[in-house]
Amino acid sequence: MESQQQQYGGRMPYFYSPEGSLVQVDFALEAVNRGSTTLGIKTNEVAILASQLKPTRPLIDPSEKVFLIDDHIGATGAGYIGDVLKLIQELRIEAQKHNLSFGSPIDVKTAAETLSSYLHQYTIYAVRPLGASVIMAGKDPTGVQLYQVDPSGTFFRGSAFAIGHRSEQTIEFLQRKYDPKMTKDALVDLARDAIKTATNEDSPIEIGIVNGTDSKFHKVPLQ
After folding, report:
1. Stated pTM of the model
2. Rounded to the nearest 5°, which phi and psi values hold at 91?
């Protein structure tokens, strides 16, 4: 820690490196990269969230990794589990507020924007950025949607995301195997294969699904 203080002029907490990167956000992203291998995939008809279940110590049950936000939205995350749970709580609260204020379910983009704004606050004040990244999937009037939000507050929309341990290898696998015409069962198999191939482990994988037919998000029983 002393060397880091000297490197950035003895300022704590420090914000920007000489290269212009947000140092504390970089550290938060490293925390995300140490989390469980986690991904999201979508087509026009269905979206899948999947995360490796891996206990941090022997004899301890692994933490839940896929969460229901509202009937039509689910989310998963990687990083410090306490930070992930805090973001899940914020998403659930915002979904309830939207329902009470507007009398309609929150759309997925608004949920992503709200979480993005919440995380961004931690980058402009002298507090610790949350070491967690979230992938959310849902079905709203615009169709099946998939978003990722990272610790800086940046959010992305796309067809596939991977975060956590060996995320680069996971996304490379998805890029090779993904087909936008895949069925729900094929997407589930792809998610499992991507995580197992990238990690070279056979840990349980928690999966959640939202499809365009019933517009509901639900978790798949562990195999």
Report:
1. 0.91
2. -65, -45
